[in-house]
Amino acid sequence: MFANKMKPRFALSRYIPILKWGTHYHRADLPHDLLAGIIVAIMLVPQGMAYALLAGLPPQVGLYASILPLIVYGIFGSSRVLGVGPVAIVSILVASAVGGFAQSGTVDYLQLALTLAFLVGIIQLGMGLFRVGFLVNFISHPVLAGFTSGASLIIGFSQLKHLLGIDMPRMEFFETVTYALTHANEADPVTVMLGVLSIAMLLYFKFVLGGQLERAGVRHAIAIPITKSAPLLIVLLGTTAVYFFNLNESASVQIVGNVPAGLPPLTMPTMEIGTISNLLPTAFIISFVSFVESISVAKALAAKERQRVSPNQELIALGLTNCASAMSGGYSVTGSFSRSVVNYDAGAKTGLASMITAVIIGLTVIFLTPLFYYLPKSLLASIIMVAVFGLVDIKTFRFMWQYNKEDAFSMIITFVTVLWWGIEKGVLVGVGSEILLFVWHASRPHIAVMGRMPNRDIYLNAARHDVITCDRVLALRIDQSLYFANVQYLEDAVFRWLQKCPNMQHFVLICTAINSIDASGLVMLESLQHSLDEAGVTFHLAALKGPIKDRMIKVGFTDEFGIEHIHKTTHEAMVVIGCE
């Protein structure tokens, strides 16, 4: 009876994780969640405003996207430390998609951004409910690394207009760089100085201060909030400087201006067919890319605590989170790598930390937005640039170039295409190139000539080991399943060896790596047997897996092939042939 009562709650907690950790919340976890929530909020306030500007939206939209979405994720997310909210990559994707249909700063632009967030939410929610999270595997690591690196450069250089204090039209990457170089003489010196000083301070806090605090004996729990407070600190210092020295008028420093106070109103996406069809391609890209980014960091951090993250539940949570953002004045959100790591390092234990961050952001929107009036846009630009340039993944490229140049090629193709043609096309071309490479590899599997180790019943690759071979027998191992794309390659390889070995009397296909054989593969084996019979060569199969053998027997393949030519092991085949 007790078990029956528990089953509905347990089943429901799979889809609403707060029912699991919330009903067994430990009071000792509260200080950790509280500290983590405060630290992440300190990071998220300036980042949210900066990323909203990057998306072409008013700064308060970034704050709106950091309230209700964080609460929703805290309820439905399976990761206890994932820091959800606005991120740079998604922001530039939003600007790229919406900017083609509306002018930044207009009501139509904001409405399209809301609609895009809602579409992303519906797509992710549907993927999670139908348990098709495996589809994101089509975005490989090389493609994701190339996309991230290329998008990071686009994002960083898009902020030059704020860093230099000059007006720049919306252009492609290379045009933006050229325009900035040719108009650098128009830059406002004070704006540039504020931006450069901010970048220097951010880099100092990021790479130097932590080591100094550690050598000074400062505890890790105290050092984390200090090193992560740089964005908030430069916002306070920069805003104060502009206010007291009137730099927005005396030196033409561009400021954020009026930021509306109060919680966001209820908003609804546009459901017109034309609008949806225009935004749908980018919505799919954001859905895939943002999920890959989220699940990667969520799994990595969960592994450290021996916890489990459910990919399909994460899709459901992110889908509901984006829907919540669209209905509360925000835009598309996802898990942030940097904020998630900070959340983990600060000691977050449950989703309550995310909710505490949301409450602090909400209080900031209600009471503190007037303080952002004199905030220089160049400071927000510096926060973005320092954050995204760290995502340019040179280390991964070096590793891929050494390990697998074809993966490195996919990364280069994606990177160059993103810079040259834009982010959406770059992702599609990158995925396409990876699929083509996969098909090419699949159609040309590795095939090894096998021989026996002296005085042992073990058979190894003759090209790599000192083994014994028999000139009457060709033993080949194909390191892939047999299907329509690679059967011709295997058949051609057998005939090439047949021409090289005039004394060949037996051919043994070693099937240890063959997990399946499709209809095309079976037809090829029949055809190969007939050709070998005509050449006076006996065809053998060794180490064939049980399920494959069962299907062969079922369709009558073994009647003509001969069950006596199918052997349990390679050595058994060699014994029967008389070449052991």
Overview of the structural elements:
The chain is mainly alpha-helical and 580 residues long. It has 2 domains: 33-166 and 173-217 and 233-435, no CATH class; 447-577, Transcription Regulator spoIIAA. Helix content is 63%, strand content 6%. It has 27 helices and 8 strands. The chain has helices at 2-15, 18-21, 30-54, 59-64, 68-76, 88-98, 107-129, 141-158, 160-164, 173-182, 189-215, 220-227, 230-245, 247-250, 273-304, 311-326, 337-345, 352-367, 377-389, 394-403, 405-421, 423-442, 487-500, 519-534, 546-554, 557-561, 570-577, and strands spanning 83-85, 334-336, 447-452, 459-461, 473-478, 506-510, 538-542, 566-567. The strands form 2 sheets. Strands 4-3-5-6-7-8 form a 6-stranded mixed beta sheet. Strands 1-2 form a two-stranded antiparallel sheet. Strand 3 (447-452) and strand 4 (459-461) form a beta hairpin. The termini are far apart.
Task: Describe the protein's topology.
Layout: H1 2-15, H2 18-21, H3 30-54, H4 59-64, H5 68-76, E1 83-85, H6 88-98, H7 107-129, H8 141-158, H9 160-164, H10 173-182, H11 189-215, H12 220-227, H13 230-245, H14 247-250, H15 273-304, H16 311-326, E2 334-336, H17 337-345, H18 352-367, H19 377-389, H20 394-403, H21 405-421, H22 423-442, E3 447-452, E4 459-461, E5 473-478, H23 487-500, E6 506-510, H24 519-534, E7 538-542, H25 546-554, H26 557-561, E8 566-567, H27 570-577
Parallel strand pairs: 5-6, 6-7, 7-8
Antiparallel strand pairs: 1-2, 3-4, 3-5
Helix pairs in contact: 3-13, 3-17, 3-18, 3-19, 5-16, 5-18, 6-15, 7-15, 7-16, 8-19, 8-21, 8-22, 11-12, 11-13, 11-19, 15-17, 20-21, 21-22
